[in-house]
Design a protein that fits this description.
Radius of gyration: 26 Å
Number of helices: 9
Strand order of the largest sheet: 1-12-7-4-2-3
Shape: elongated
Helix content: 25-40%
Largest sheet: 6 strands, parallel
Strand content: 15-25%
Distance between the termini: 79 Å
Structural class: alpha/beta
Number of strands: 12
Length: about 250
């Protein structure tokens, strides 16, 4: 048995040496074809992260709103500028009436709890369910059946036209992913210029404090195959409204 083990170890060692020789030959061949010496040390990176000029770059609020609207619309989304949360409630109610929405699901957030969306949508003939408000309910199935999903953005970035939505037990990803139409409410104080202003919060929080999910939304779901046949709404809502509030 000892001889067999030694023989097996020698075989493995020989394989490793052969593999290393082939790697060396391959890399030397590339250097020769490039007509330059082979690099044997890792390159130095004296600078890490975004440069100072980019970290300090910030648009004024009105330009942030303009750029966000331009970029979000260019990706197929819709944008409305509204004075306050009451105007947002009225906007959603009018869309529910216009689109004959019958079933609405929303996240369980303080801003939406105070909105009074349930009462406003009764007049439009729609019922509202609150995510994870009943432990016995299949909430993913309810979200998949919903005509509208309503969420509040945690952040938004004007430069990319992106909305950031975090997940938790009260903020299920399915609310923004599965309904046919999605409304995301964006208080203006959460509208930033760059994604870096948003991502820094997660770095500072540390690994143990990260949310269950961090989702970036830039308009409706867009899917294309190898022949560039674009389809809207396959992997998410086909219609997305970003409501800038304030």
């Amino acid at each position: 048995m000892a001889n067999q083990a030694e023989s097996h170890d020698e075989w493995l060692k020989q394989l490793a040496e052969d593999s290393k020789r082939k790697q060396e030959s391959f890399m030397n061949g590339i250097a020769q074809k490039l007509r330059r010496p082979r690099v044997m040390e890792a390159p130095k990176h004296p600078f890490r992260g975004a440069p100072d000029f980019w970290q300090s770059f910030e648009w004024p609020l009105e330009e942030r709103m303009d750029r966000f609207e331009e970029n979000f619309k260019s990706a197929g989304g819709h944008v409305a500028r509204l004075a306050d949360m009451d105007a947002a409630k009225q906007f959603i109610a009018e869309k529910a009436a216009a689109l004959s929405a019958r079933y609405v699901i929303r996240q369980n957030q303080p801003e939406l709890n105070e909105l009074g969306l349930e009462e406003a949508l009764q007049g439009a003939g729609a019922s509202v369910r609150v995510w994870n408000s009943d432990a016995d309910e299949n909430w993913k199935a309810r979200a998949a059946e919903a005509d509208f999903g309503v969420v509040v953005a945690d952040y938004a970035a004007a430069y990319t036209g992106s909305v950031t939505v975090l997940s938790s037990k009260d903020k299920g990803r399915s609310v923004s992913l599965l309904p046919t139409v999605m409304f995301v409410l964006i208080p203006l104080e959460r509208l930033k210029t760059r994604l870096g202003e948003i991502l820094i919060h997660f770095d500072e929080a540390g690994r143990e404090q990260l949310p269950a999910g961090i989702h970036f939304i830039s308009g409706p779901s867009r899917s294309a195959d190898i022949e560039n046949d674009l389809t809207i709404g396959v992997h998410g809502p086909g219609v997305v409204y970003a409501l800038l509030i304030g």
